[in-house]
Every structure is written in structure tokens, then in C-alpha cells.
Amino acid sequence: MIDLEVPKKFRPLVSQARGMAEEVFRPVSRKYDRAEHEYPAELDLVSAVIDGMADGGAGQGAGASSSTRSKDDGAEEGDVAAVGSGRTAKGEKGTRNGSNLSSVLSILETCRGDVGLTLSIPRQGLGNAAIAAVASDEQKERYAGKWAAMAITEPDTGSDSGAIRTTAVKDGDEYVLNGEKIFVTSGERAELVVVWATLDRSLGKQAIKSFVVRRDNPGLKLVRLEHKLGIRASDTAAFILDDCRVPAEDLLGDPEIKTEGGFGGAMQTFDNTRPLVASMALGLTRASLDRTTELLAESGIEVDWDRPANVQSAAAARLIEMEADYQSAYLLTLRAAWMADNGKPNSMEASMAKAKAGRTCVNVSLACVELAGATGYAETELLEKWARDSKILDIFEGTQQIQLLVVARRTLGFSSKELK
């Protein structure tokens, strides 16, 4: 029997995240959409609340900084997972609800308020998830409490992360990094930047490693902040790495190049962050569906969930179809997070969740603008903003097309060289 209820111990976290979305994020959402690059001062209070929840044990997994791949992380023996067997008795060793699942559930709620503001919460960056995924215990302790961005994309390297050109050359007890990084979420505001670089270009993706670079490192130079279609509350930076010297102890994972493997620790980052991005898309989708349902109800159009779609109005039938898409994306995302919490390889499932949630988010947000008509297109509602915000969720952390390619390779048993 599969239990799909939100685990009891996560319900206070989900409730607090929902309150944050409705009472803090939505009231200032339009303000920071218009004031691009202005730091949202309200986030300092949000960050303090998250820190307090974590210190008190109530905020387990409240954000990317807690997301990690561990069989034992954040779970108690006998806890029944949201997508696991419901027959595990208390005290028995069974499936677990850990920080990946709680992060997904809490991020989904905050993104019902605003995706850009969620991405801007201090110390909850995607770089924090990268550190949680592959850092040693000593590194996790050393970087604790720091806000980390993640720098992967380059001007000539988008979806193909294996073609990264930024180099890392060992020089004594340091690595010297040279290259260029673009589209770095929270790059200006973060205290650390997790930079992907290659130890040997001739070896391709096997030589890709990730390095933690301090934001005040003189070799890490901010070039510009991007002006964007959506998530305008979140800063997106471009950097030049010019003889950027990084202590060897700040390389994440194994420093050795293993030619028989792939990205190794660096690629494991995606297994953690893709379900988080999927949950962002779910939050925006949920917000769009809920608000559109309210607007249609005000016009006399309501969905009867007990009747077939084909005997209802076209608008009601469309909402039923979109709700089904949302639920399928939601379940895929829960499964990917649950697998990570339980130490199960989830690369394909993480890509499936991200692909489905990202595409659903774009389709639903645009359809909701259409269903709401002039009201949906106007700035009097957040629907038009959510439609603009949605597209990035189908792009970053691996585009829709790359996710489908990963799923095809896993399903058919092909390597990246055999299926491109």
C-alpha cells in the first residue's frame, strides 16, 4: 500500500512555508519584480525564521542547504515515507522521510508565493545543495551557515556540462582556475560560489570537478548582472575567473580523475537539485491553478470533480486536465526525493520529475493567463508574472530536452556517447 500523505513530522514545516508564501512573499512579489536587482530586505527576517526553525529541530530540510543524499539523513527508524510502504511498524528499519523530501515540500509552498524570492533566501542557494550532495563532513562543517551559488554554464557550454572549458590547474596546495561563467543564480549576493571546472580538457566529463570559491576571492570578478524575463527578484550574475587561486581543500569530492566513471560527485549534484527545481515548478503551477479556479468561480464557472470533463464547460475541462498534469508531476517529484532520502540511485527519476514539472509549469501558467482573459494578462493579477517566471523552470538545472535525453539513455541502456 502506498501512502501519499504528507508525513506528520513535516506538516508544521509545510504550514510555516505556506504562511511565508502568503503573508511575506506575495505582498511584495510585484514590488521586487519591478525593482530588479534590489535586494529584498524582507528576506532577512525569513532567513532568521528558517535558522530558528533549524536550530529548534522544526525546520529539517527547510531549503536547499539541507538537501543531501543519505540513507540516514534526517530520518528516524520506522518513519513511513511519503511514497513508500505503509506497513513498516514503529521501531523497524524501513523507508525514511529525510531532508530531500522535506525540502521539496517546503520549497513547493514558498514558490506558491514567489519563485524569485525563494531563490533569494540567504543560505538556501543551489550551491548549498551541491555542497550537501558531495562535500565531506569537514567541508560541510566549514561551509555551514554560508550562502552558496552554483556556477556551471559558460558562454560556449550550456546543456552539455561535459564540455566545460573553465580549467583548474594544481599548483602546490592550491588550484588555479581560469574561465568564464554566466547565469549564476544569486551570484552577486552569495558568500560562496561552487564553480565547475575541468582538471584535463582532453578527458571530457570524467575530469570535471567542483570547487568552492569565496565570493571575495580577487580572482573571481563580477562582470554583469543579467536583465531577465522572469524571477527578477533573484540576481543572475556573470563572472570571469582570472588566475583564481583556490585552496586544494575547497575541491568537493574525490580529487582523483577516474576515467571509468562519469562526473562522479559533481554529477550527483543534479540528482539533488533537479527535484528541488521540480518542486519550484510545482509551487508556481499550484498557485496558477488555484488563482484561476477562484477567478473562474467568480464568473460562475466551477469544476465538478465528480462529473466527467466532457459534460462540463470547456474552461472546467481544461482545469481538470491541468490538475491531472500537476498531480503526475507532483508524484514524480516525491518519488525522486524519496529515493534520494533512501540511498537509491535516482538520476533518471530526478530528470523525469524535472522534465514533467518544468513543462507542466509553462503550459499551465500560460493556459491560466488565457483562461482568465484580460484579467490574466494585466498587472492587477500575478498570473502574468507567474507566466514569465515559469519558463526558467523548464531551462535551468538542465533543459527539457536534456532531461528527456537522460531518461532515454537510462531507459534504453545507452551511454552519452552512444545517444546524443
Distance between the termini: 39 Å
- The number of distinct helices, counting runs of at least 4 residues, comes to 12
- CATH T-level topology of the largest domain: Butyryl-CoA Dehydrogenase, subunit A, domain 3
| CATH architecture designation of the largest domain | Up-down Bundle
- Rg, rounded, reads 21 Å
Classified by CATH, the class of the largest domain is Mainly Alpha
Give me the count of strands.
8
* Strand composition percent: 5-15%
Give, in spatial order, the strands making up the sheet with the most strands.
Answer: 1-4-5-8
Which regions contain 5 or more consecutive residues with pLDDT less than 50? 70-92
Give the name of the CATH superfamily of the largest domain. Answer: Butyryl-CoA Dehydrogenase, subunit A, domain 3
Fraction of residues in helix = 40-55%
Total domain modules: 3
Describe the global form: globular
Summed over residues and divided by their number, the pLDDT gives a mean of 88
What structural class do the secondary elements suggest?
alpha+beta
Sheet bearing the most strands, described? 4 strands, mixed
What letter string, H or E per element, gives the SSE order?
HHHHHHEEEEEEEEHHHHHH
